[in-house]
Amino acid sequence: MKRVITYGTFDLLHYGHINLLRRARQMGDYLIVALSTDEFNWREKRKQCYFSYEKRKQLLEAIRYVDLVIPEENWEQKRNDVKEYHVDTFVMGDDWSGKFDFLKEEGCEVIYVPRTPEISSSQIKEELHSKKDI
Ligand code: C2G
């Protein structure tokens, strides 16, 4: 069984996230999503999520491409995750291109896929906010 992993916040789930998850799942037989916790998002990315970790986890677990959701609590856990979950392939959008190549040292394939253009959780928030002001 080929095991794939990806990491992210996945707030305000949108079709860009779904494209990523579908493509990641198509690279293997089992997809693990390491979902950024609320604490990690705020401490490390200064991201205040609209949905809590539990709600974002619930949404991800409802997606046919996702087999397991685990918490992402720090930047350093990836190396250990790859070993602990016997991961064969690591996939991220290409906005992260090159950032995680060190995982190849663990015998893990590292693939960056093109981001879906013109959609992001922050863009959704901004556009909804500006509409509210009309
Ligand atoms: N993504 C995409 N296309 C978009 C938006 C996002 O392909 N239009 C991809 C991102 O490249 C990423 C995944 O969807 O691979 C999740 O995106 P975010 O939730 O924004 O994740 P991010 O905040 O980048 O956190 O340790 C890695 C970090 O946790 C990634």
From TrEMBL:
Key words of the record: Nucleotidyltransferase, Transferase
Any one Gene Ontology molecular-function term assigned to this protein's record: glycerol-3-phosphate cytidylyltransferase activity
Residues of the Cytidyltransferase-like domain: 5-126
Leading EC class: transferase
EC numbers for this chain: 2.7.7.39
Keyword Nucleotidyltransferase: yes
Coiled-coil segments on the chain, per record: none
InterPro entries: Archaeal_FAD_synthase (IPR050385), Cyt_trans-like (IPR004821), G3P_cytidylTrfase (IPR006409), Rossmann-like_a/b/a_fold (IPR014729)
PANTHER family according to UniProt: FAD SYNTHASE (PTHR43793:SF1)
Entry-linked Pfam families: CTP_transf_like (PF01467)
NCBIfam families: cyt_tran_rel, g3p_cytidyltrns
Name of the featured protein: Glycerol-3-phosphate cytidylyltransferase
Record-linked Gene3D superfamilies: HUPs
